[in-house]
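lol forgot to send this yesterday, sorry. struct tokens for the thing we talked abt
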């Protein structure tokens, strides 16, 4: 069965309706998230938090920022 991939192509990230966020702790990137904004809804396209940073509220902070 072919592998499924639901992320965005690199050129699609640089569209006006796409926002991408990076969470940093002491200057080091520990998480990221992307959201596609549409007229009636938004869709979280991708989220990731490094394993060592999990359990510290990074994902919650990213989601809160995307919801803003």
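and heres what i got for the seq, position by position
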């Amino acid at each position: 069965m072919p592998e499924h991939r639901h992320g965005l192509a690199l050129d699609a990230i640089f569209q006006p309706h796409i926002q991408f966020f990076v969470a940093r702790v002491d200057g080091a990137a520990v998480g990221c998230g992307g959201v596609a904004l549409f007229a009636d809804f938004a869709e979280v396209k991708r989220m990731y938090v490094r394993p060592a940073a999990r359990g510290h509220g990074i994902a919650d902070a990213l989601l809160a920022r995307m919801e803003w």
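Residues 13 and 28 are 22 Å apart (CA to CA). anyway ping me if u want another try
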